[in-house]
Each structure stands twice: as structure tokens, then as C-alpha cells.
Design brief:
This protein is an all-alpha fold and 49 residues long. It is built from 2 helices and no strands.
């Protein structure tokens, strides 16, 4: 049962790894990650004050 759950994730991760090797994809991923981090920082700052 566990193998049936993990196996699709393995295939998706292998496919994503191939897609994220291009410089354009890496730049997009970095910008998205920066947006999430900035959003989290803003949410924490708004909640604290």
C-alpha cells in the first residue's frame, strides 16, 4: 500500500528534476520562492505588531 502512494511521487519528482534544470526555470523558481518568503515575512510582521 505504501509503495502505491510513494511511487507516483517518485515519478513526479524525477520529471520535475528534468524540467527544473534549465536556467529559465531556475530563475522562475527562485522568484516564486522569494515571493513566498516575502509574503511570510510580511504576514509575521503584520501579526506581531
Amino acid at each position: 500500500m505504501l509503495l502505491a502512494v510513494i511511487l507516483p511521487y517518485l515519478f513526479l519528482a524525477a520529471r520535475a528534476r528534468g524540467l527544473l534544470q534549465t536556467p529559465k526555470a531556475l530563475k522562475l523558481m527562485s522568484r516564486i520562492a522569494a515571493g513566498f518568503l516575502g509574503g511570510a515575512a510580511a504576514a509575521i510582521a503584520a501579526r506581531v505588531s
